[in-house]
């Protein structure tokens, strides 16, 4: 019995080790241009959201009242402050992500990859899956995308920015923390199920043809698709990422 348990524990450790390395190797951020060229409607809608403008809030003079309430200097330029920038951009501290030293416009603000996952490894499969569906009606399993780092749960990704403060209910919290906590104002309380439907912060949803099927499927996917709008079709079949 003891033998068996040791064996199982060793197997679990190996699995964790290998899945960890596979993910780490494929986690490369590229910026929203690579997604926007194929998903024009979402990209256009995203630009007007709070996430799309997240860098503006770090500029001097912006959101004065909110900053004063959180004990920040309303006239200071925080756009290069490493205690701030990380949650207002894509892929901070990650491979290919935004840096203060060599800032890339396509990674500034909370873009596609902050929620959907770093896209380098999976975006080619979107192209292939889309083509297979268009030509032959063949569907592709979402698992293929999930294995390459596409996120279909979202909650952990949101928490890393929204619930990152001392005393947070989220276990992963570590400095630098967000200055905007429920203690500063109850409106900063993060409730995933409510927030993920907030139209001021989230892009609008557009109808999919259904090229990708199966689990993992986002828990509100069917609900969002039921009320989704007709979107613009991609004119970038090769996925070159020009916009
Ligand atoms: C070459 C074009 C292309 C690129 C580049 C691309 N996609 Fe897609 N994507 C598609 C197609 C085609 C589908 C399937 C659409 C359908 O079913 O109607 C899709 C589906 C999706 C879906 C829906 C998946 C589901 O659950 O059904 C999401 C989310 C998505 N893409 C996000 C992204 C993000 C984020 C990026 C950038 C990292 C990206 N895409 C890059 C073409 C692309
Ligand atoms: C990379 C960090 C980051 C991630 C990931 C992130 N957010 Fe945000 N979110 C922000 C920032 C920063 C703002 C504030 C933008 C601004 O006003 O400057 C914000 C604003 C919001 C707001 C608007 C709050 C208000 O006061 O109106 C909502 C709602 C929201 N996010 C929900 C979500 C959800 C849901 C997810 C996950 C699906 C998510 N966010 C993922 C950083 C993030
Ligand atoms: C751990 C992630 C994180 C860090 C670090 C962070 N922020 Fe943010 N910031 C957020 C999130 C999440 C929101 C959205 C809060 C909400 O509206 O619920 C936000 C919102 C804001 C807002 C808009 C608040 C409002 O009510 O209009 C400003 C301004 C801002 N941040 C400035 C800063 C500054 C300045 C720093 C550095 C001193 C900083 N942030 C550091 C995550 C972070
Ligand atoms: C704050 C988080 C967040 C950001 C930023 C974000 N998305 Fe999404 N996106 C979502 C969520 C949540 C869904 C719903 C997923 C589902 O229904 O399966 C979604 C759905 C989608 C879909 C599926 C069809 C639809 O409209 O629902 C596509 C395609 C997509 N996003 C592309 C993008 C692109 C392109 C960007 C960047 C320009 C982007 N997203 C930025 C959270 C985000």
TrEMBL record:
Pfam families: Cytochrome_C554 (PF13435). The lineage of its organism: Bacteria, Pseudomonadati, Pseudomonadota, Betaproteobacteria, Nitrosomonadales. It comes from Nitrosomonas supralitoralis. Residues 34-117 form the Cytochrome c-552/4 domain. InterPro entries: Cyt_c-552/4, Cytochrome_c-554-like, Multihaem_cyt_sf, Multiheme_Cytochr_ET. NCBIfam families: Cyt554_Nsmonas. Residues 223-243 are annotated as: Disordered. This is Cytochrome C554. Residues 1-24 form the signal peptide. Keywords: Signal. The keyword Signal applies. It comes from the Bacteria.
């Amino acid at each position: 019995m003891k033998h068996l348990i040791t064996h199982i524990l060793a197997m679990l450790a190996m699995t964790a080790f290998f899945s960890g390395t596979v993910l780490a190797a494929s986690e490369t951020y590229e910026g929203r241009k690579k997604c926007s060229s194929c998903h024009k409607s979402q990209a256009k809608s995203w630009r007007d959201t709070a996430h799309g403008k997240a860098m503006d809030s770090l500029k001097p003079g912006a959101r004065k009242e909110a900053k004063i309430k959180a004990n920040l200097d309303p006239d200071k330029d925080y756009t290069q402050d490493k205690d701030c920038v990380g949650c207002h951009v894509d892929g901070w501290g990650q491979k290919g992500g935004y840096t203060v030293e060599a800032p890339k416009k396509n990674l500034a603000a909370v873009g596609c990859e902050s929620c959907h996952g770093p896209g380098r490894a999976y975006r080619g499969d979107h192209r292939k899956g889309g083509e297979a569906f268009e030509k032959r009606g063949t569907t592709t399993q979402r698992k293929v995308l999930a294995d390459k780092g596409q996120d279909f749960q979202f909650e952990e990704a949101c928490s890393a920015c929204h619930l990152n403060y001392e005393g947070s209910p989220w276990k992963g919290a570590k400095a630098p923390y967000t200055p905007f906590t429920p203690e500063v104002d109850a409106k900063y309380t993060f409730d995933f199920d409510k927030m993920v439907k907030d139209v001021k912060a989230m892009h609008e949803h557009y109808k999919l043809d259904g090229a990708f099927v199966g689990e993992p499927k986002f828990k509100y996917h069917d609900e969002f698709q039921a009320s989704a709008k007709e979107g613009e079709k991609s004119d970038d079949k090769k996925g070159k990422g020009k916009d």
